[in-house]
Design a protein that fits this description.
Oligomer: single chain
Radius of gyration: 22 Å
Number of helices: 12
Helix content: 25-40%
Number of strands: 16
Strand order of the largest sheet: 11-10-9-8-12-6-13-16-15
């Protein structure tokens, strides 16, 4: 199952709105087939593994990180394909909560006389597909807030100097995070002042093109910005408020930018909760946020952050530096969002800590 989960991770950032699934087929102690969900969500992991196994699938044990699908789409259900292949046993990490499946795939297998074991490495499988699960259950993507700071939580000096706080290895890891995301979100301030490209610049992964999302209620994004100029090449979404001038909106659209207008939140800005729901409706399962302090504070204040990816460089900038998270009204410690450390890695002189929301 660990091998199946490792294979499943290869699909992260490429298979939305589908889950990233891995499958390993074993017969007489020998791996005869391996597969993972392919880009675009098809073919499924089981289909790939069965194709590789061929006749050797008969009588085999199948390890799959998610319940085989039970619904007819572009291809027949994977559960039926496993039955047709004559496998003897299926070990699944977890049920698929999609209402089109939800135990039906496992029932197809049992009705065919195939032994079914459920729950092996369930926790790992749930963490890997947390974005898919959240979108199915809550209609929104998993939100990963990325921060790159000094030891005292600063992202720039008082003069605005910020390139580069972290070193090359940390920046490469940040691009790996991008490659595993379905979309990357920033605010208009970060877009204007930092001029980010929001693409993936790692050898072998440059073909990955997460949706670039800018929250810009006042349409501050220049039409000459890379996010607009390359919108025909890299998918770009501008989220703004309803009622902005049609001519300005049409200029973005003519450049290839997808524009969505949302009603304001209680403070008159773009509702981040509505933005996440819109992204979930578009099939986005994993959202990486790379915005500045105000966007980070708004997401944290709204309880909208599921994970933190915190890069730290071993330097001190001081209290007059720019904070990674702006003020958001915490009066008491029990009001502060709380996280649990899930992983840590050293990246040269820098480090990255992954935290999950303590729910």
């Amino acid at each position: 199952m660990r091998a199946a989960l490792t294979l499943a991770a290869r699909g992260l950032g490429q298979v939305a709105p589908n889950p990233a699934v891995g499958c390993v087929i074993v017969n007489h102690g020998r791996v005869v087939g391996r597969g993972w969900t392919q880009p675009g969500g098809r073919p499924h992991a089981e289909t790939e593994a069965l194709r590789q196994a061929g006749a050797a699938a008969a009588g085999a044990t199948v390890y799959v990180s998610l319940e085989p699908c039970a619904h007819h789409g572009e291809t027949p259900p994977c559960a039926e394909a496993l039955v047709a292949a004559g496998v003897a046993r299926v070990v699944a990490a977890m049920e698929d909560p999609d209402s089109r499946v939800a135990g039906r795939g496992l029932e197809i297998l049992r009705q065919a006389g195939i032994a079914v074991d459920l729950g092996v490495a369930r926790g790992q499988a749930e963490r890997l597909n947390a974005g898919f699960l959240k979108r199915i259950l809550k209609g929104q993507p998993l939100v990963v807030l990325k921060l790159a700071t000094s030891l005292d939580g600063r992202i720039a000096t008082h003069s605005g100097d910020s390139q580069w706080i972290t070193g090359d290895l940390a920046r490469r890891r940040a691009h790996l995070l991008r490659s595993r995301a379905d979309a990357i979100l920033i605010g208009s301030g970060t877009a204007v002042f930092d001029n980010p490209r929001l693409d993936v610049r790692l050898p072998g992964l440059t073909g990955r093109k997460p949706l670039r999302v800018v929250v810009d209620g006042r349409l501050r994004l220049p039409l000459t910005h890379d996010l607009v100029a390359r919108a025909a090449e890299l998918p770009t979404l501008l989220v703004t408020l309803a009622g902005n001038p049609a001519a300005r909106l049409n200029a973005y659209k003519d450049a290839g930018v997808d524009v969505v207008q949302l009603a304001p939140d209680g403070d008159g800005g773009v509702s981040l909760d509505a933005t996440l729901s819109h992204l979930g409706g578009r099939g986005i399962t994993r959202l990486l946020v790379e915005g500045g302090g105000h966007l980070a504070a708004s997401l944290l204040r709204g309880g909208l952050v599921d994970r933190l990816a915190w890069f730290q460089a071993p330097l001190i900038i001081g209290g007059d530096g720019v904070a990674a998270v702006s003020s958001f009204g915490v009066d008491r410690l029990d009001q502060a969002p709380k996280f649990l450390q899930a992983a840590m890695a050293q990246l040269g002189r820098d480090r990255i800590d992954i935290f999950s929301l303590d729910s």
